Amino acid sequence: MDQLVKCEANTAPLTPLTFLNRAATAYASRTSVIYKTTRFTWHQTYQRCRRLASSLSSLNITKNDVVSVLAPNVPAVYEMHFAVPMAGAILNTINTRLDAYNIATILRHSEAKLFFVDHQLVPLARDALNCLAKDPIKPPLVVLIDALDAPRGVRLSLGELEYEQLVLNGDSAYEPHVVEDEWDSIALNYTSGTTSAPKGVVYSHRGAYLSTLSILMQWEVGSYPVYLWSLPMFHCNGWTLTWGIAARGGTNVCIRGTSAGEMYRAIHDHGVSHMCCAPVLFNVLLEARPEERTPPLAFPVKVLTGGAPPPAPLLKKMERLGFHVMHAYGLTEATGVALVCEWWSGWNRLPEGEQARLKARQGISALCLAGVGVKDPTTMKSVPHDGQAVGEIVLRGSTVMKGYYKDPAATSLAFNGGWYHTGDAGVVHPDGYVEVTDRLKDVIISGGENISSVEVESVLYSHPMVAEASVVAMPHKHWGETPCAFVSLKKEEISVEMKIKEEDMISYCREKLPHFMIPRRVVFMGELPKINMKTQKFKLRELAKTLPPLKEEHEQQQQDLICSTSASHL
């Protein structure tokens, strides 16, 4: 055994770039990308990526340089997932929902050398670049991504470079950068920055490769999937499916927006088989006008959802429409998916409601991780697998981020004790499946009782008139804090909103929850504030602090606690 050695024949650095090389050979004539009237094959996509990488090199983009992009799900962003690392550089996809200040913060912190901007986002990009005007660092070179189907000739007045021109001018025979160390960085993704400055999360080639294979296997993605880009590619590089669809020789259906009409039209026109989205898009699909979802789905569409725990009632409604939902849990720092709710065939015999409840759980470890635990954050001891004891979800493995860019202190804190600390509270059920109960910071402590906002939200979602619900803590002079619910009604119910009273919602919850968990206030909103498709609970918490004092007496609160027989959740 000691005579066996590593060599080029038996060892190669893991990188998702190999998926494109293989697709160009194994699936050369198959359709790789569909966008409006544009079609590319895998051979063409490979050639376009090589040409773009060649042009990047001619612009002196070299190893470890950061290339940023601000654009929706257009073919250019998909191609950059391969072309940028093919030039040895690091791809930074920027959240298009951020404001100019946060975009400028990302450009400044990443020291991006090149900045690709979609033609519709020019005003936002210009404002961000103006924020950098007084910086001592050199601003990035700007490249416009013009409309692929009908170029508009828009310019930023900061340069004349244009995406398609770079592709055209590049060398199709360009030899891509050779990845010699799989620990090299492939992507830089920034957290939302909703409560603090955005943090840069660095991915390795190895982590991206393993995460890609893991999700393909656990989601059971077969050959030639037709994948709808309803999930932004700036979300953890599309949960690594930017690289994964190439690995399976599938077709990427790119769309600029996620309106109900746009998604249903793409599903019908192109035979979409797979899509990903946050649960908030379920409401968009469910509330589509009859003409938007006509005819009914011809075959099931497999949906991978994550980003927030989907309430069981919402999952049940999606299944009835023909969307077969699998729930996953992940975060930017985990290179996407960390837990997958793998489905047991025996569960198909269970009642519909019980199936939805099981699907709402986050699941078991992704194959790419070495370990997932739910531990007491103080002692780091694992909690019992009883579905009751709550701890913090922690992760370890090659797909956990390399660390936070330029922030060793935050990296050290996140990796304390040899695990990545997610900040999410959860339980482990007897079958080993993990269920998120809340963000640790979102747990509501009322009179010594710990309340899961997720559990209260699930009950509110079961109300036939509710489209969205979010529950946060509001101050209470006797119990410290108490639940406050913010509710958005379905579109068809808005006209009768005045008929729905706060006490009606509270009474509905009273029938389904222990008394101490019942929201003491219910506030109706047109739409809940969001970023990254997630509700901004910190804004709702601030709003809850401004609400007038509760009318109920201290004695009623005390009686509710006495009546409750539910055990504490933490």
Automatic annotation (TrEMBL):
Region annotated Disordered sits at 550-570
Coiled-coil annotated residue ranges, if any: none
Q: Any idea which UniProt keywords this protein has?
A: Ligase
Every AMP-dependent synthetase/ligase domain range? 21-405
- Metal-binding in keyword set: no
Q: Which domain of life is it from?
A: Eukaryota
Q: Which residues form the AMP-binding enzyme C-terminal domain?
A: 455-530
- Residue ranges under compositional bias (Polar residues)? 558-570
Family, as annotated: Belongs to the ATP-dependent AMP-binding enzyme family.
- From the Swiss-Prot or TrEMBL record, give the protein name: Benzoate--CoA ligase, peroxisomal-like protein
